[in-house]
Design goal:
Length: 144
């Protein structure tokens, strides 16, 4: 996932995938994985904005994130449909951390935290939408 994060930053700065491969020293298989992962993430965001124009990063589906496939499957089967659901779980002091879930150890929990940190959804960061929904549940948009 570290390669994906670095490649995302390089891609945002305008580098081609060939330049990313050379700069990060990736094999063609690793580069293919990075391309598919970034493509899945971008497609998920595009699809979300097309269906709900006022959607935020909290509404991005976990199933279309850059997390590994097994972890995505495990989180969605546990009921976490969006990144906002994961952020709410981590910010709730009454619930144990993600490591308490079976099959999720410190490494996988760190991957989720880095993803949430990328989108600014980690507890302690400026998550205005989440704070408003916590204080005023009536303003929370219904999720499927």
């Amino acid at each position: 996932m570290l390669n994906v994060e670095e490649a995302r930053a390089l891609r945002a700065s305008g580098c081609t995938y060939r330049q990313i491969r050379r700069q990060l020293g990736l094999t063609t298989g690793q580069l293919g994985h990075v391309r598919r992962t970034l493509s899945r993430e971008k497609a998920g965001g595009t699809r979300l904005l097309r269906t709900t124009p006022n959607a935020t990063d909290r509404d991005l589906p976990v199933s279309r994130s850059v997390l590994p496939s097994g972890l995505r499957r495990q989180l969605t089967s546990s009921g976490y449909k969006t990144l906002g659901d994961l952020a709410d779980r981590l910010s709730d002091p009454d619930l144990p951390g993600l490591q308490a879930m079976p099959g999720i150890g410190p490494h996988k929990a760190a991957l989720v935290k880095r993803l949430l940190d990328h989108y600014g959804l980690l507890p302690g960061t400026d998550d205005l939408q989440g704070a408003i929904e916590a204080l005023f549940p009536d303003f929370a948009e219904p999720r499927d």
